[in-house]
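Homework help board

Subject: predicted structure for assignment chain

Our instructor gave us this sequence and asked us to write out the predicted structure in token form, then describe one feature. I got the tokens but I'm not sure how to describe them. Can anyone check?
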Amino acid sequence: MYNTGGYDSLEALTLLDGIIDIYMPDMKYGDSKLGRRYSHVRDYVGVNRAALKEMHRQVGDLRLDAQGIAQRGLLVRHLVLPENLAGSEQVLDFLSREISPDTYLNLMDQYHPCYRADEHPPLDRPLTAGEYRAALALAKRCGLRRLDRRQ
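My token output:
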């Protein structure tokens, strides 16, 4: 299992081809300007999308055994942020159209403001239940069929 923030170089991923069974990347932002502002990285979206395409090329959609244990494939995490700051629509649309509508997605609702979040509204407040429900509805509208349902 390769657990990653999703900001991986294609060179590094190429070296992992045939070694990794399960990739578990984040898709943090749908807009590179936000990636630069909050994570201090350049071209987050371009790097992240290229990395996910390569990961999916290597291992495909997530396959589970009869007990529901992951065997091989891609499992994507996306943290929903207040006021859709993560750009969930762009992230979910990309996953459905350019990766696979069968992408296994953990759409996370556990954002909690801490450290210096008070300096970056709307990150200074928790996610609302309505914002999370809107993200779930958006995932369905985008055609994503495999949402992690564990609470």
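Reply (TA_rk): Your tokens look well-formed. For the description, you could write something like this. Residues 2-147 form a domain with the TIM Barrel fold (CATH 3.20.20.70). That's the kind of observation they're looking for.
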